[in-house]
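Human: You know discrete backbone vocabularies at least as well as I do. Show me how you would write down a chain together with its backbone fold. No explanation is needed for now; the record alone will do.

Assistant:
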Amino acid sequence: MAFEGLSEKLQSVFRKLKGKGILSERDIDEAMREIKLALLEADVNFKVVKDFVARVREKALGAEIHASLNPGQQVIKIVSDELGMLMGGTNSKLTYSPGGFTILMMAGLQGTGKTTTCGKLATYLKKNGKNPMLCACDIYRPAAIDQLEIVGEGAQVPVFADRESKDPVNIAERAIKEARRLGKDVLIVDTAGRLQIDEDLMDELRGLKKAIRPHEILLVVDSLMGQDAVSSAEGFNEALGVDGVIMTKLDGDSRGGAALSTKSVTGKPIKFIGVGEKLDALEPFHPERMASRILGMGDVVSLIEKLEDDYEEEKAIELERKLKKMEFTLEDFLGQMAQIKKMGGIAQVAGMIPGMGRGKLSDDQVAEGEREFVRMEAVMRSMTKAERKDPAILNASRRKRIAAGSGQPVSQVNSLVKRYEEARKMMKSFMKPGGRMRLPGGMF
């Protein structure tokens, strides 16, 4: 989980501040020391940390306390705002050609996930109304063209490739003509990488840039590389000039130092983040939302967007109808579990809900929750459709058969049915007289 360690440490600092009615300069200095240590342990660039802490301290000491905030909350707000600014302030969008045909050139070292990211970006563009095509210009790495073609097939996007040519400029120029002929509006050019930055690589990339004049050069970096990722971004930008960064494997980076340092060190925004292995696991990077998640305040906007993207309106309407009439069955429960899995599982969804971030849920709790999901799904899939629609028919012999079929004890079957009945009772108690679902905290 991204920023897990940093999130826990910062939330620990803020819990101490919230317990104080008045903050002295000494309190603020102590908090700044702990924040500085937390950022350094998260592998954030030292100069970035130093400047960040100085800005927060200055604003915390000189801040006029907002009427609705106590002093501790005021410091949290300052840190949240500064974290967002540190990562770029606002979402930086892709630039498209006003003429209708856009060329995106991908660059990066080997092993950063560049070729897979080409497919993820194509998937994202298709989802947003574009008609992309991929171009294979990595003529050195074994099976690079094969990999791009597999990715293209998964994204259902055509790939232009020439296994005989050793001239990436010629390949790209022909790809542009072919993309225009096919009526495509975006060409994503996958380029060669190296194990490290060298002059031969940069000469080739500069030549390609001059020939095809891309509208944006996107640098793919691996967040797990920490400050090495930031250094490579700095090197590519100085030699080539990049327009934005795509940070891969952020879901597996518990520190997150690269994401917090990149904008300050290179001056270039993070435009997208990779949050999984699937082709749809690429998200626009929103600094202010990420800052909120780091501080355990959730990310409701992203959660709503995910729900809108992943959930069919007809299914949502049908579910609401069933809830109103108390017709919610285990069949619907199974569908809801599939929905949570589609959205990234318990860890990702919980991280977006205020008060449910990693500061509240331990790794063991999240892992146990995921395991429980697997057990419950196994039990429900061992039931017949009739049993899922009407659990009242689940007598002892049926439960014994379901347990054997799912590889779970009978107690697990009993537990699932009990939870389902409790959920139905809870839903009934949340129903307002007018028939609208009323969730805790005023959420509908």
